[in-house]
Specification:
There is one protein chain. It contains 13 helices and eight strands. It has two domains: 203 residues, Rossmann fold; 58 residues, no CATH class. The protein is of the alpha/beta class and 312 residues long. Strands 1-2-4-3-5-6-7-8 form an eight-stranded mixed sheet, sandwiched between helices.
């Protein structure tokens, strides 16, 4: 096991690498934007690394990585360039990638733009289009706000969800949802106990507030999350799996249905007692599904099966 700073793209990224160097490699791409890989590696690092070479990265400017450089401007493409340089630095010819939440948005773009680098893709509760995510999530947040006696804030959420025009980053829907206050994170879990466990993991990590606050540097990426990636899904030329929690509010049903239409051979996995953080809520089931998929597609080549298709 190795963890430390790696020079990439004019900055240094914190890389948490676990498992045998000869095992099939898997890159974890966190979302947020700006969440870091800490909680994922805490929950899944030792489990997944039993059978694969797991590589978690705090993206540029996030948590344990160096603060975000003043230039170049932060974009999804810049993150993809970082992943590519890291792959080459680690001496990996091709790897499977797993994108969680908005990291799924990055993973789709990565797989399509760098097909020779990616052997398989796992999309974990992906955000394909933040407009669809917001329209699905805001009514549930409104219901919770009503339960808290915050009727005006609930109405604000319903009004946003009912907008005729597409929602964009300028609408700042996340601010409307933050009216949940201390209950905000509960929307991402199957139950309140899961949210409490998540808070405990972060609080016990021992990082100062200044390091956690680095994640705010990724707010500019929110705008790109409102640009749908559906047009790219059919261009993925590797096996694909979508994994999500039954109670997840980010991978909206309309988005999942469109994904299924565009990538009909993709594998689907639903965790019955999870929300958005299945890797924490059902760690063993999650690990088993990811491990089976990665090991089953370790030898797929760029000229092999089409998107989501199993190897012969």
């Amino acid at each position: 096991m190795a963890a430390g700073l790696v020079s990439v793209g004019g900055t240094r990224l914190f890389v948490d690498e676990r498992g045998d160097s000869g095992a099939p490699p898997l890159l974890f791409i966190h979302g947020g934007p700006g969440q870091s890989c800490y909680d994922y590696m805490y929950s899944q690092g030792d489990l997944l690394s039993r059978h694969m070479r797991l590589i978690g990265v705090d993206q540029r400017g996030v948590l344990r990585s160096d603060p975000l450089p003043a230039s170049p401007p932060l974009t999804e493409e810049l993150l993809i360039e970082d992943f590519e340089e890291l792959r080459e630095t680690l001496g990996i010819s091709r790897w499977a990638i797993l994108g969680h939440s908005s990291g799924g948005h990055y993973a789709v773009r990565y797989a399509v733009s760098r097909p020779k680098s990616v052997s398989a893709v796992i999309l974990d509760c992906p955000c394909f289009d933040s407009d669809l995510t917001d329209r699905y999530r805001l009514p549930e947040v409104a219901r919770r706000l009503d339960e808290l006696g915050k009727s005006a804030e609930a109405e604000r959420c319903r009004a946003l969800a009912a907008r005729a025009e597409r929602l964009t980053a300028a609408d700042e829907t996340y601010l409307a949802m933050q009216a949940l206050g201390e209950h905000y994170m509960e929307q991402f879990f199957h139950d309140s106990a899961g949210a409490a466990d998540f808070h405990a993991v972060l609080e016990n990590a021992g990082f100062p507030d200044e390091m956690w606050d680095r994640g705010r540097s990724h707010l500019p990426l929110v705008a790109e999350n409102y640009e749908p990636v559906f047009s790219l899904l059919g261009d993925m030329r590797c096996p694909v799996m979508l994994i999500r929690g039954q109670d997840d509010l980010v991978a909206a049903p309309a988005a999942v249905a469109e994904f299924a239409r565009l990538v009909p051979t993709a594998r689907h996995m639903v965790l019955a007692e999870s929300g958005h953080m299945g890797y924490q809520e059902q760690p063993d089931e999650y690990c088993a599904a990811v491990t089976e998929f990665v090991l089953g597609h370790r030898a797929v080549t760029a000229s092999g099966p089409q998107a989501g298709q199993a190897p012969p």
